Every structure is written in structure tokens, then in C-alpha cells.
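ENTRY TYPE: protein
WANTED: fold as C-alpha cells:
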Amino acid sequence: MNKKAVGIIGDIILDRILSIDHFPVKGSEAFVNGGSERLGGSACNTARMIRNLEIKPYLVSCYASDETGRKISERLNRHGLDKTYIMESGKKSGVIYILVTPDSERTMITSRSDKPIPLEESVYSSLLEKIVWLHVSGYTLTEKIQRKIVHKALKKANEMKITVSLDPGTGTVLNHSSDILQILPRVDYFLPNEEEYDILHQNTDFNRIVKHLGRPMVVKRGKKGGRILFSHSVKDIEPGRRVSVKDTTGAGDAFNAGFIAGMMRTGELETACSEANETAGKWIESTVFL
């Protein structure tokens, strides 16, 4: 077992970013000011930043042998990600079209891969023998066959005393909240953003479950930093500095990476949140990760 290895389950996606002059209303027109492509997907972003923090990531994901998949493969090689559990499989790779307006507001249109993650149980058995922390993207819970595989992996991770974290993802919270609630008992660190937390808080039995589990939760608050929710108290961890914003896409994924790294190094929640804020800030202000 690698004492500093993290397993990360979730999508690899090609981001196609379009800068537009305004967001159009239905039936109208907007104009493109610029565009770019880059490696994306919540799990992939977290893996890339974990690697940058000098911790070994094993990303568990798939891309197809189509044109998009070839671009994904080239970028994986460029960023030096370990491909042990990244498989060329399926017929269609994932793409997200990200519309960015001048105020940095992002609107995403997603075409998901037809096989986002491997479905062979042997992959996960092998992975768990190599890691001390397992991070899961909530988007893996949106399809029954993927959800079944993830549940099995988490059950075995719990049995092996491997720490588990979950980033729920807004789409999953909106459309599959019951699946998130079902998986929470197997999660040590739940990492929603404010919007995701509010949706669960207002529309589900989330609070009762969290109170019963008695585990602290970390809420990502964008430029306001992070918030730790304990059983009977709240601690806000504000960013230590202002950053020059280049692009906020993937900042929450970078926060995940900083939090995981901080917890692995120190075991202290407040320190880990401070490291998460700093890591997200570096991602936002840098072009290195494109």
C-alpha cells in the first residue's frame, strides 16, 4: 500500500469553454468572444491537483476511442496522470460545453460519456489495496449500474478502514438526492458547496441523517472559503488572501484536493480547510491547469 495514495472515482470530460458577450434568452442570440478546450470532469480535476500537491492519485475513469477520447488521452499524458485505472472503453467520451459570461457566471451543457467509470469489480478491489483515502464524485451515482459498483467499493473501503470523501455535485443533488442520503453513512467527509447543502437541507431528511451520523461536514463557499459544521457549532475558515481570478471552473474540485491533502498531512480539519482554500485559489488564478 502507498501511504500517500488517493483513489478518485469519477468522470474524465473534455471541457469546451465559450466566452460569450451575454447569456441569451430563449430564441435570441449571443456572440462568442473566445474559446478553448481543456481536460475536465470533477474527479479528473481533483486528481490533477492532488498530484500537484505531491500525493499519488489513482483516477478510476473511462474515455472512448472517439475523437474526443483521443484529445483526452493526449492531455492525460501531458499532465502526467497515472493511467493504471483509466480505461479506453465505451463508444462516446464526455464533453461539457461551458458558457462563460463577462461576470464569470458559468452555464454548463453536458454530454456525458456512455461509460464514465469501469464496471469491473476487479478494478476496485485492486485499487483499494493501494490507497488510504477514497474520493468519489457524486456524478457516479446518477446511473444504476455505476451506483451499484460505487456502493460495493465504498462498503469494502469501510471494511478496510480507508477514509472516504464525497463531492455530491449539483446535478446529483437536484435529481438523485435519495441516492446521496443512502450513501452518506459510508462517507467520512461530505464536501458539498453552499447550493448543494441548501438543497439537501431544505428538501430532504438530510439534517436528521447528518445529526445521527455525528460527523463534521465541510461546505465549500466559493470566495468566502469553507465552513465546518460540527454537531453543535460552526467554524468559518476564510481565505488567507485575495486571488486574481482567471477562471473559477474546477475551483471546488481543487478545494477537494487541498482538503484531502491537508487531512492526510495533519489530520486537523481547520488546517485542512485552510489548505483547501489556498489550493482553490491557486487553481483559480493559474493557467497551468488548463
About this structure: Residues 269-285 form the longest helix (17 residues). The mean pLDDT is 92. The longest strand covers residues 32-40. The domain at 5-285 is CATH 3.40.1190.20 (UDP-N-acetylmuramoyl-L-alanine:D-glutamate ligase).
